[in-house]
Amino acid sequence: MLASLRRFTVASATSLALLAGVATEAVAAGGYELVQPPQNTATADQVEVIEFFWLGCPHCYAFEPTIEAWAENKPENVAFVREAPPLNSSWENHSRAFYAAQALGHENEFVMAMFEAIHEKRQPMRDPKKIADVAAAVGMDRDKFLSTMKSFGVQTKMNRATQLARGSGLTGVPAVVINGKYRTSAQLAGGNAGMIDVIDETIAMEKQSMGLE
């Protein structure tokens, strides 16, 4: 490892060393950080798991197969939710598009199609009209999709997602927050598989405390 690090500039090597140190400490502590103060959840009788992501994020794209496989076989009494807050102004149209697709009942297929367009076909997909073409390709009415992107309901969801992300102490995506109390990421958990381990472990903790076991 030391030999490979020498190939980087001194600045890069220092940054990597610091990052490695943070990740090691986090994994030793359980791979998560406590959300302070804890955030309210939308489900009182289930453990809520929220994935925060951005359609244009390559790390989110890489995490998608892992989190999707987990979601298909998630434990009982668990509610899984995806949120796409516009934490950067350049994310806004992607965020609007996600919530529009969600409102129109095509969330999963739209996310897959957008990930493919952005990360496999190398199309930025910033133009709402081009995004609407993707929406139409997965079965949505193009004009209705565009109007929904501009709707009050979508704006409300974006505002709420941004508040949730900030209240949860997010510094980047993808990140997962479990029951408003625990925050994990690939950096904290040591990788995508580690995130799933943390999710399952903290779910078990919460189910026990809520009497759901």
Give the helices and strands, then pairings:
Blueprint lengths: L1 H4 L4 H19 L4 E2 L12 E6 L5 H15 L5 E6 L8 H12 L3 H14 L7 H10 L4 H8 L2 H16 L7 E4 L3 E3 L1 H4 L2 H19 L3
Parallel strand pairs: 2-3
Antiparallel strand pairs: 1-5, 2-4, 4-5
Largest sheet descriptor: 5 strands, mixed
**Total E-strand runs:** 5
Low-confidence stretches: 1-28
Mean pLDDT: 88
What proportion of the residues is helical, as a percent range?
Answer: 55-70%
Envelope shape: globular
Ends: how far apart?
44 Å
Strands across the major sheet, in which order? 1-5-4-2-3
Share of β-strand residues: 5-15%
Based on helices, strands and strand pairing, what is the structural class? alpha+beta
Return the string of H and E elements: HHEEHEHHHHHEEHH
Brief characterization of the structure:
The chain is α+β, with helices and mostly antiparallel strands and 213 residues long. The protein contains ten helices and five strands; from the N terminus they run H-H-E-E-H-E-H-H-H-H-H-E-E-H-H.
Describe this protein's structure:
The protein is α+β, with helices and mostly antiparallel strands. Helices cover 57% and strands 10% of the residues. It is built from ten helices and five strands, in the order ααββαβαααααββαα. Strands 1-5-4-2-3 form a five-stranded mixed β-sheet. Helix 4 runs antiparallel to helix 5 and helix 4 packs across helix 7 (142-149). The longest helix has 19 residues, at 10-28. The chain is globular, with a radius of gyration of 18 Å. The relative contact order is 0.19. Mean pLDDT is 88; it is low at 1-28.
